[in-house]
Amino acid sequence: MPSFTLIWLLAGGVLCLTELFLPSAFVAFMMGISALVVALLSGVGLGNVWLQVLVWLLLSTLLIVLSRRFLQPRRRQSKIQDAVIAETLTEIPPGKTGRVLYEGNSWQARCDDDKFTIAPHQRVYVVRREGTTLIVIPENLLSH
Fold first, then answer.
1. CA torsion sign, 107 to 113 to 115 to 119?
2. Digits of tens for pLDDT over the chain (144 positions)?
């Protein structure tokens, strides 16, 4: 029967290579790294198989959680940082939709605040998109 160190080394190598060919957001890679660490621990004397499996599970979970925390891009808090300028083509009444010219195309748009009317030919900021409707705020709203 092959040693458990060799089995952990093979499992670690296979999991790391799996991430190369079938990307899984670093899950397989982190599990492979954990298997390689357990192989190292097995080689220096961690002989109990159940303890090796427990260490592998805990280390895999820890590495996956840490990779999610440190490798995912942080979301920005402000809507304005992502805002893009557009121009209204028609009036946008409170709570209703109108049309804006955005990136050379006419889009359906609605004001982010249901209390404002936006006049035609006014510059607006596109703050997000909901399906095929752009959600905008008037440029003059930011200067107040």
1. negative
2. 468 899 999 999 999 999 888 887 788 999 999 999 999 999 888 878 999 999 999 999 999 998 888 776 666 554 445 558 899 999 999 989 999 998 888 999 999 888 889 999 999 999 888 888 999 998 887 765
Contact yes or no for 97/110 (Cβ under 8 A):
yes
DSSP the chain: ---HHHHHHHHHHHHHHHHHHS--TTHHHHHHHHHHHHHHHHHTT---HHHHHHHHHHHHHHHHHHHHHHHSPPPPS-SGGG-EEEEESS-B-TTSEEEEEETTEEEEEEESSTT--B-TT-EEEEEEEETTEEEEEEHHHHT-
Q: For residues 37 and 57, what is the distance between their CA atoms, to the nearest angstrom?
A: 12
Going along the chain from its start, the domains and CATH numbers come out as 4-71 (no CATH), 80-139 (2.40.50.140)
- pTM of the predicted model, to two decimals? 0.52
